[in-house]
Amino acid sequence: MTAPATAAGTAPGRVRLPPLLRLLILTQLAFNIGFFAVLPFLAEHLGRAIGMAGWLVGLVLGLRTFSQQGLFVVGGALTDRYGVRPVVLTGCALRIAGFAWLGYAERTWAVIGAVLLIGFAAALFSPAVESEVARQAVAWEEAGGGARTRVLALFTVAGQAGAFVGPLLGALLLAVDFRTACLAGAGVFVLVLAGHVRLLPQHIPGRARVRMRGGTGALLRNRRFLALCCAYGACLLAYNQLYLALPAEVERATGSQAPLAWLFALSSLLVVTAQLPVTRWAGDRLAPRRAMAAGLLLIAAGFAGVAAARPAEWTGTAGLLPAAGFVVLLTLGQMFVTPVARAWVPDLAEEGRLGLYTGALSSVSGLVVLLGSAASGSLLDSGLPPAVPWLLLAAVPVTAIGLLPRRE
């Protein structure tokens, strides 16, 4: 992939994007600041403050992911039908309500209701933003701006920059309590909502609205697209272990959750600094299937590294090294997988249904995470030899390589 053509006066290799793309990329930054101020600390809150068993914590986290990823297809279809603006604004309002509810939830049913609302909010605004970014990236590529994966890599960088700031903000707010972190997350989305009321266009040129009926059947017959969804779902299941397996390992090694924020920061910093070079390197050398396979192998290596170290029962700083290696390899794998998977969708989607297909990519992966999260929580509490759960988790991304579409 060569450096994109840019307007006169722009330094070589730099990207000058249209205003709408810049707004959408900054939107992803803000979304993740608010989200990651809360989510990395949810499992610990549910286990200690609420007193949930490990399997129930895993189920709640899976329900949150499924209500988000699993219902992306609904948000995508609504975006195709009604446009980006109303779906994004509604999602932001629901996220504000969900975070406020979670801050005050003390019973299991209330926690579940709050996390379902938080997830469904993202099921509205995320596919709206992601599908429009993908559509604009294709148009930018066709206009000679450069490869679409470059835009989608920038989108990923913005999200991870938010994921870098969010946990640090949450760690500071937890010095007060979990409720304060939740209310701060809600406050971020109040600002996002106000900004988008003012800046997001009522109608985006080139986006034609379609009827909601008629697209699902063709999608379910699209075997290549469904294969991509399943492989991407395995990748998200592995990523979800940052919120389930990683906190347990950090707690075991140090007796505290404090290092968790720094490990999340490490992950985000890697993406912010290395995502664009990795995407450029992969684009120059690897076809989409090979790039995703390389990413899945890196993710598997991260799990295997922890499995190899677990029998030694290291603690303290030495005990954190396998966890840090896991975070680094998982993050590098995500850098390979995520932009390529998103860039592949427009080529597989039916005309006028990009929102539906973008949502379906996350919905199928959300179903994989729902099924896998409860199993992962039980696995970590199963009393098996310490290396076994991590080895079984390593097998998931390896198996997913065989699911990738064979034809580019």
TrEMBL record:
It comes from the Bacteria. The chain crosses the membrane at residues 20-43, 49-66, 87-104, 110-130, 151-172, 178-201, 222-240, 260-279, 291-309, 321-342, 354-375, 387-404. It is found in: Cell membrane. Residues 20-408 form the Major facilitator superfamily (MFS) profile domain. Its main location: membrane. Keywords: Cell membrane, Membrane, Transmembrane, Transmembrane helix, Transport. InterPro entries: MFS, MFS_dom, MFS_trans_sf, MFS_Transporters. Pfam families: MFS_1 (PF07690). Gene3D superfamilies: MFS general substrate transporter like domains. It is a multi-pass membrane protein. PANTHER family: MULTIDRUG RESISTANCE PROTEIN MDTH, RESISTANCE PROTEIN MDTM, PUTATIVE-RELATED-RELATED. This is MDR family MFS transporter.
